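ESCALATION

Customer reports they have been waiting on this structure for their group meeting. Please prioritize. Original submission:
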Amino acid sequence: MKRWMLVLPLVLSCSQGTTVNLKLRIAGDERKTPLRNPGTPNTPASDVDVLRLEAYNPTLGVTRQGEVTNDFAVSNEIKVGALDISEGAGWRTQLAGNDRYGALFSLGRSEAFDIPKEGTIDVNMVLGIADDFATTALAPGGLGPFTTATVLPDGAVLLMGLSGPSLFAPHAGTLCTDCLSGDLPSPRQLHTATLLADGSVLVAGGATAAGQPVEGVYLFTPSTRTFAALALPQFPARYGSASAALPGGRVLIAGGRGAVAADAARVVVIDVAAGTFEEQPPLPQGVMLAAATPLETGAGVLITGGLDAAGTPVATASVYAAEGGMVRRAVPMLEARAAHSATLLADGYVFLFGGHGSTGSTLSSAEVFTPGGKFLSVDSANLEPRAGHAALRLDSDAVLIVGGQAEPAGPPDPARLVSALRFSPEREAGGKYAGTFVPVGQVVARNAAAIVALPDLSVLVAGGARPTLAAEPSVAPVAGDWVESLEIFVPCAIKGKPCPR
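Update from on-call: job pushed to the front of the queue and completed.
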């Protein structure tokens, strides 16, 4: 996969001694590249000929633009004149590319950065494809299903899966394992990885590729890139648990399958600083592959669904207080579901989609949990069923849903591309919740992948496997079916800034 690293100097008019160096990396591979629009059945293919660089500051209300000369074919360079930008906090840059027919295709943004009175600063950007996915790195052999991805304070991503722990640098597009030290966790799947307020990450439980529980709770410190095993005697070794961060450096872990059947209903809260854990009221029944969703600030954690001991999805729901302890057993969901997604929306509702249903089928239905504690249906007619998919809320407050589709008949195709789905929420009306679903982009087919939002507002998809999520999800697909590509999705529109045209 060919990569470019370019440096574009942006000279500030406020101080001749201040320079911003924009370091640009271009994502993509031989099949999909931001530099060429492959076209559609109704439109011809075309190179991206026109690039527009924009520096903007939402706080100051300042936007500066400049047209960029694309000379990759000759010298792998981009040339741009100076942009008149000034000292201040909260600047971002955006690079948009149109093909020769004027259609927007490529898009990249930087993280927010501050411009000092003088000196030189480096700003990174990855150029991807607008409202689409592009390969940004390869993990030889793949990371495995049920990998977790956690963004650290410096923008790096901690990956943990059946390939072991690794660190991904989005701007460089590199993966490393030898950069990590300490008590490294053994390879695992179906574990939890929870980001704490101080930037550290708590990794707990999980299973081997053969579905055997693994013990151990580990704390990752990002400043030193080290893991430390926590001494928690009697902590239940489980896999398929759900977790959420609580205030005060504590983590709630609920459900999960282990050697003791009763452990599947246990709920514990780990106090990381104290190195202790406390039992909480148990779940209504033992489950694995439930979903844990932090509610609005101070409102607690919603636990929904999961597979019971017989592998049957359940419809139970519970709310646990932010300080620990069950607040209430909520009314049941409208449908039993497991391996579903549950995403907090900007209005405080929780959007639940897909999963395995009680009849053994995969669901395409959706519902929301309201701030008042009830479930309402969402019209999701004519959608493709998904289970073991990944979902997150974008900066625009829409929800991106990736993967989880069934594998077609015949041998798995490692190059198969499938559509993601974007749900744009609207409001509660007439006893239902309104919103629209739109297919978006093309991503390598995968199930049980990790998804995470990066500081530049793009989305990283990592890990997963090609076959449909098995009836016994703790037994991983063979390693040859693990997806190797890490892909980035660049949303065309973000909050307060429409899609560039």
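Sent to customer with the following note: The CA atoms of residues 4 and 25 lie 5 Å apart.
Escalation resolved.
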